[in-house]
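Hi all, long-time lurker, first post. I run a small reading group and we've been trying to get comfortable going from sequence to structure in the token notation. Rather than ask abstract questions, I figured I'd post a concrete chain and ask someone more experienced to write out its structure so we can walk through it together at our next meeting. Sequence below, copied exactly:
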Amino acid sequence: MASNHVDVLVVGAGISGIGQAYHLQTEAPDRTYLILEGRADIGGTWDLFRYPGIRSDSDMHTLGFEFKPWNAEKSIADGPSIMAYLRETIAEHGIDRHIRFNHLVRHAEWSSETATWTVDVELATTGEHLTYTCNFLSMCSGYYSYRHGHTPDFEGRDRFQGRIVHPQQWPDDLDDAGKRVVVIGSGATAMTLVPAMAATAAHVTMLQRSPTYVAAGPDVDVIANGLRKVLPDSVAYSVTRWKNTTLQQFMYKRMRANPQKAKNLLVGRVRKALGPEYDVDTHFTPSYAPWDQRLCLVPNGDLFEAINAGTASVVTDTIVGFDETGIQLESGEHLDADIIITATGLEMVTLGEVDFVVDGEPVDFAQTWSYKGFAYSDVPNLASTFGYVNASWTLRADLIATYTCRLLNHMAETDTTICTPRLRPSDASMVARPMLDHLTSGYVQRAADRFPKQGDREPWINPQDYAKDRKMFRKEPVDDEVMTFTTARPSTQAPRVYQSVGR
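-- Answer (accepted) --
Happy to help. Here is the structure in token form:
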């Protein structure tokens, strides 16, 4: 059984892992690192999902990296364009040579005596197991299971004579030309699929149990494209990123402060797009407040165009069950279908479905407290990237990557080897809240009992404010009397072996 050691192991070669690698190289360049990726390619979400129309639901000036300008004309980009951007990033910075593909991390065990993580890895291609050790573990594996999506147990599913597909396992041979398609769901995936498939299918029906807030917007940022004509790319990108992050946070706070006014605005725009005869109250007027769940972006109003053209429609009803030819609804209506797409959501998981052990004790993350939204009480030398739910994921991923480097550098400067968030005596009375306590989405609620708790005071909260986070992660001291810094006994420290994995 092979064994290799590096200073930092990064788990996941998606946006978060690539960003973490760049920051390690530039802000903690004395540390060796590897990225372990369970799949055969980079990209994470953008490699996994292959359904028609796959695109970003955030602008690429904020979903892109802070250090790598997005220069394409479209700011709402399709999956292949995002993959090309990621490939260009890893090639430019030599990150590709640090990635080990088909390395599935199964188990991670911490020893305080040696200040090391021992990580068990299964090779996806052969089933062989390898062991890696590291001093610091950076989990960049996302928040959902790559094994399967969420699919409710629909009565009569086996009776259906057509094809049933979940977007997370999209088949290469699916032909929707001239077919009747029903897409079950009302989230971003469904609203992407419906107009994309409506271009070739006979008809596409979006079947939803309840409505979602929808906001139409252009897929081109005119200001960004104009700035690039008169400014260097890096400057134009920085200005656009600042503009968009400021606008995102402003709109989010205004909507949360004035939910009824925001609701009227969002629903009013849909009503204008679909016309006075359309039943917007039934199909596009949610019962919850804006941002209790994520808003869905409709680039250039493509969903509304498909509905107006008659190639797509929305049905709001409850499913009784499937039969041979489609779906029977509670209202008595029957939806005829040749293809059923179950865009019914994701299965959220904690830290890549890896089993963690600290000093012989299994870690139940549901019993831990979230430290600044990226680390966990009593779990040493571990960072976990979880982006924003009210803005672009990468904004927070970049900040966490920088903070991880600050922790590593502080340990080097103070000759310590272990950093662990510990509850203060005054924190014993904290009121526990869910880590994502302001989101009511089904995929969040299904997993709430498996996620860490957040408290009622800093730093035991999960921040969702980019301006505050920038200050906290980049300026505030890492030695805050909560993150404790200690040293393993020198006589028992693991040897530092860099064979075949150094820079």
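A couple of things your group might point at:
Residues 179 and 326 are 12 Å apart (CA to CA).
DSSP finds 13 helices and 25 strands in the chain.
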